[in-house]
Amino acid sequence: MAHLRLTTEPGLTAGCARVGAVSDDSIKDLRRKIVKAGGNAAVLSFEIEDMSTIHAEFTGVQPPRTLRHESAAADGVATGTAAATIATGTTAAPPPPAR
């Protein structure tokens, strides 16, 4: 699992850009959700009415979306230069021909 810092102290993430928020009743599942969404630090909180659910507001840098040629073709997504332009906003060289 990627590096992830969990805390209950909001001051430790002061100055970081908030990426999102998730909730779960399992810390293991909560960590997976945060990492999958691109988070690297999260402030945990609990509601008094429901202490079994953990809420997390997380910060981090989301990597730019890129399309792999194989997965894009399997999903029916545009491939080649058009896909690179859509994903990154810039024109890139087309992928090599399929073998």
Main sheet properties:
4 strands, mixed
The neighbouring-strand order within the major sheet is 1-3-4-2
Along the chain, the helix and strand elements come as EEHEEHH
Q: What is the domain tally?
A: 2
Number of separate strands: 4
- Gap between N and C termini, in Å? 33 Å
Shape: elongated
Counting DSSP H or I runs of 4 or more residues, the number of helices is: 3
Radius of gyration: 18 Å
Helix content: 25-40%
Strand content: 15-25%
Poorly predicted ranges (pLDDT <50, ≥5 residues)? 69-91
Structural class comes to: alpha+beta
- Mean pLDDT score, rounded? 74
Give a verbal description of the structure.
By secondary structure, this protein is of the alpha+beta class. The chain has 2 domains: 5-59, no CATH class; 65-99, no CATH class. The chain is built from 3 helices and 4 strands. It has helices at residues 27-36, 69-75, 81-88, and strands at 5-7, 18-24, 41-46, 54-59. Strands 1-3-4-2 form a 4-stranded mixed sheet, with helices on one face. Strand 3 (41-46) and strand 4 (54-59) form a beta hairpin. The longest helix has 10 residues, at 27-36.
Give the helices and strands, then pairings.
Layout (H helix, E strand, L loop, with lengths): L4 E3 L10 E7 L2 H10 L4 E6 L7 E6 L9 H7 L5 H8 L11
Parallel strand pairs: 1-3
Antiparallel strand pairs: 2-4, 3-4
List keywords for this structure.
single chain, 99 residues, alpha+beta, 2 domains, 4-stranded mixed beta sheet, 3 helices
In short:
The protein has 2 domains: 5-59, no CATH class; 65-99, no CATH class.
